What does this fold into?
Amino acid sequence: MSKGPGLFTDIGKKAKDLLTRDYISDQKISISTYSDTGVALTSTALKKGGLSTGDVAAQYKYKNTLIDVKVDTESNILTTLTFTDIVPSTKTIASLKFPDCNSGKLEVQYFHHHATFTSAIAAKQSPVIDVSAALGTPTFAIGAEAGYETSSGKLTKYTAGISVTKPDSCASIVLGDKGDTIRASYIHHLDQLKKSAAVGEITRRFSTNENTFTVGGCYAVDNLTVVKTKLNNHGKLGALLQHEIIPKSILTISSEFDTKALDKTPKFGVALALKP
It folds into this structure.
């Protein structure tokens, strides 16, 4: 395990990723190439419903600087610069989107053996400032985050969380949505390589008195194939198959069914990521 408690956003992330990552209902293909100069190019095409979009992204790393540029079919250009250790133990991330310059953002992250801090400001006419902090160790962390809108002087969000991490498991509790929801999750890895795992998550929304309980898991059939599944108390069943067709190139097939309304058409998604 890494040194320090990690960022606040890492609390509960492992369980959330297992229940949400790679579950898609669209058709997507991406092709990556690498030049001799170290530039990585990725072209992506996405079909969502009857709408087709695409983008081309370029990434280049020079010493402690990572440059990302993405251009999409709607003529938007997103540029992200990541600087590591401008000041020791820090990471600075600056992003700007053209032509909407109001979507710019500057974030600074600070890492310590027993604490991490982040501060971000959005480049808008009414800037929003986000701050977060996490205290602890790699095995135990407690933290909080808040958002402040300078024009109104009001808090846009405040969240708190706690997590306990062991080599083969992780449990967390997050109080979010300005105290309106509480989410508890637990993930347990079933093998040393952490390719197979089981997860459970329960979320309660106090304003509507609604509870959502989700269980899921992933299983490595072999070194090239992984299957995932999830089911919640509302009857939503999801299943996913990932297969490495050639080295570093992955095919993902995903579906979702409503077991309480089998007359509805299930959702299906396919994604193909090709890398050299």
Observations:
- The chain has a mean pLDDT of 93.
